[in-house]
Amino acid sequence: MKFSPDARPERWLGSLALAVISLISLGNVITRYVTGGSLAFTEEFSVFLLVVLTFAGASVALRRNGHIRIGLLERALPAGPRKALILFQWLCGALVLGLITWFGGKLTWEEYQWQSLSPGLGLPQWWYLAWLPLLSAAMLVRLTQQTRDRLSGRLADEP
């Protein structure tokens, strides 16, 4: 049986975000054509959903080993140094994602405390920001799973 890594929650979330973006954009186009006016909420929701889609898609790509990287050095190294390089790659990625999670969480909490409202619709800003630390934490989990599978040989270096 072939090993097939998956990130099912992120796939569903990304698919849902893309479907909703498509529907509200279509609704906005139809409304603009029929009435000459535009639906006010579509831009704010579309931007928010594009961010969710981007992070969810990046998480899926991490789990499936689909991110772009230069593997020339990895392929040239013997097994021991190659594993050290993979661990170094994990450390760098984990550091960046950990910082995004930490500071995204801090920003979300501050927006919650300040009761900031979004400029377009006046919704609580933290509703939009809460997805940043959640999805970057999901990416960190998927990066760790990918690294573990690469080190154990369950996941090929080339997708």
Automatic annotation (TrEMBL):
Keyword Transmembrane: yes
GO cellular component term of the entry, any: plasma membrane
Keyword annotations from UniProtKB, A to Z: Cell inner membrane, Cell membrane, Membrane, Transmembrane, Transmembrane helix, Transport
Signal peptide: none
Residues passing through the membrane, by range: 12-33, 45-63, 84-105, 125-144
A GO biological process held by the record: C4-dicarboxylate transport
Record domain Tripartite ATP-independent periplasmic transporters DctQ component: where: 22-151
Compartmental location: Cell inner membrane
Keyword Coiled coil attached: no
Pfam families membership: DctQ
Membrane topology note: Multi-pass membrane protein
MF-aspect GO terms: transmembrane transporter activity
InterPro entries xrefs: DctQ (IPR055348), TRAP_DctQ (IPR007387)
Primary role: Part of the tripartite ATP-independent periplasmic (TRAP) transport system.
Subunit structure, interactors included: The complex comprises the extracytoplasmic solute receptor protein and the two transmembrane proteins.
Family in the record: Belongs to the TRAP transporter small permease family.
UniProt protein name: TRAP transporter small permease protein
Originating organism: Halomonas chromatireducens
Lineage: Bacteria, Pseudomonadati, Pseudomonadota, Gammaproteobacteria, Oceanospirillales
